[in-house]
UniProtKB/TrEMBL annotation:
Residue ranges crossing the lipid bilayer per the database entry: 40-59, 71-93, 113-139, 160-185
Name this polypeptide is given: NnrU family protein
InterPro entries documented for this protein: NnrU_dom (IPR009915)
Record keywords: Membrane, Transmembrane, Transmembrane helix
GO CC term, one of those recorded: membrane
Organism: Acidovorax delafieldii 2AN
Cellular localization per UniProt: Membrane
Main localization, broad class: membrane
Annotated ranges, domain NnrU: 4-190
Membrane topology: Multi-pass membrane protein
Length: 193
């Protein structure tokens, strides 16, 4: 559990700088230069993510059950993760209505993904991992919306074509991950295959 917690502190800590110290981040990035900042940020993120993956894998070998979720939560999680994939796609597909209305769909996707996994998993490692991501996403979304208000950020309006492309990309990515990727990477087949 130690490596999981350490990895979460590093990974989410790096991703929280903008939440808790945006002015410091801006000044440091200007002082270091864009390339050096991104390189250091990427390196710290990669180390944190590696620790999260390793720590979670170790914690799963000796699970500490807190509760046993009802079977129906697996179905709820599948539906919620489909929504999370739509939101993730909306962060990248240009000119879609989802991003135009929600402004920060990737962070919302992390919220939905974390909630889905909290509903369908009852082990301590799951609660630590997904609970930390859910808390981070709540704080990150709030901070991003506050920055938007302060800066007067205006998002481009969405188009029907952009929105349809978002739904198709998100749906295909979800199906591929749910049917094959999750079992291959995590060792769990979420759709019971």
């Amino acid at each position: 559990m130690l490596y999981l917690v350490l990895g979460l502190v590093v990974f989410l800590g790096v991703h929280s700088v903008r939440i808790v110290a945006d002015d410091w981040r801006t000044q440091t990035r200007a002082r270091m230069g864009e390339g050096a900042w991104k390189g250091l940020y990427s390196l710290a993120s990669a180390v944190g993510l590696a620790l999260v993956v390793w720590g979670y894998g170790l914690a799963r070998q000796q699970p500490v059950a807190l509760w046993v979720p009802p079977v129906g939560m697996r179905h709820a999680a599948a539906l919620l993760t489909l929504l999370a994939f739509f939101l993730l796609a909306a962060a990248y597909v240009p000119r879609n209505t989802i991003k135009a209305r929600l402004h920060h769909p990737m962070v919302l996707g992390v919220k939905v993904w974390a909630l889905a996994h909290l509903l369908s998993n009852g082990n301590l490692a799951d609660v630590v991992l997904f609970g930390a991501f859910l808390l981070w996403a709540v704080l990150s979304f709030r901070a991003a919306r506050q920055r938007d208000r302060v800066q007067g950020t205006v998002y481009a309006p969405g188009t029907a074509a952009g929105t349809i492309a978002t739904v198709v990309v998100g749906g295909v990515a979800w199906a591929a991950f749910a049917l094959w990727g999750h079992a291959w990477l995590i060792g769990v087949a979420p759709l019971g295959r």
